[in-house]
Amino acid sequence: MPSSSNRGPNPYESSQTESTHRRSDSKRPIGTLILAPLLLLVGLATIWIRISQLLSAYSFSDEVVISGSYYVTLARDVLIAGAALIGGALLPFGKAVGWWASVFHAYLRIALQGVLPTIGAIVAQLSWGVMQVPYTARLAACAVCVLILIYLQKDNVRLYFGIRTKPLVLNPAFLVVCTVLIFGFDVCMTLVR
């Protein structure tokens, strides 16, 4: 029987030592400490807006009829806020889940703020001859999310979180998935009305 000291490293062992080495080898990116509270703020603000809308509907009327589209919008916003809150809570601790949630949140925001309004404007132009100009605030939010994605894809940031995938900056497949997800919520909203 060969002794365990003669064998090389076992490729099937847990990668605990790998994750501890990456933290000591790589310096914490300062941008993650700036981004984390902003994500928490965005997540909490999204939830607060939905709650305040619901409470204001109840305060102005004795009989409140909430359409099904409100619940679909609420589910979409909870998904987006949840990704922001998870990302914001876990980014400072160097957790890979926080990195992935932050990337997912940025892609969802790009799909919601940029891609779908642009598709809507193109369809309106082709169908009715009316060109709808996307809102400046939506385009600004989309640009901020693109900048966040670019930052999160930097080599030192991915190394700190132990992410070994290729950079996802404006990855068309990931953007299509998020757009279809948001579009699915919007289709459900239309069907439920």
In a nutshell, what does this entry contain?
The protein is mostly helical.
Explained architecture:
The protein has 193 residues and is mostly helical. It has one domain. 73% of the residues lie in helices and 0% in strands. The chain has 7 helices and no strands. Helix 3 runs antiparallel to helix 7. It is globular and about 70 Å long.
Q: Which tags fit this structure?
A:
193 residues, mainly alpha, single chain
SSE map:
Blueprint: H1 16-25, H2 30-59, H3 68-90, H4 96-128, H5 136-152, H6 155-161, H7 172-192
The figure for the number of domains is 1
Instruction: Please summarize the sheet with the most strands.
Output: none
Terminal CA distance: 72 Å
By secondary-structure content and strand pairing, the structural class works out as mainly alpha
Q: What is the beta-strand fraction?
A: under 5%
Oligomer: single chain
Residue-averaged pLDDT: 75
Rg from Cα: 21 Å
* Sequence stretches where pLDDT stays below 50 over 5 or more residues: 14-22
| Coarse shape | globular
The percentage helix is over 70%
Which sequence of SSEs, written as H and E, runs from N to C? HHHHHHH
Number of strands: 0
Number of helices: 7
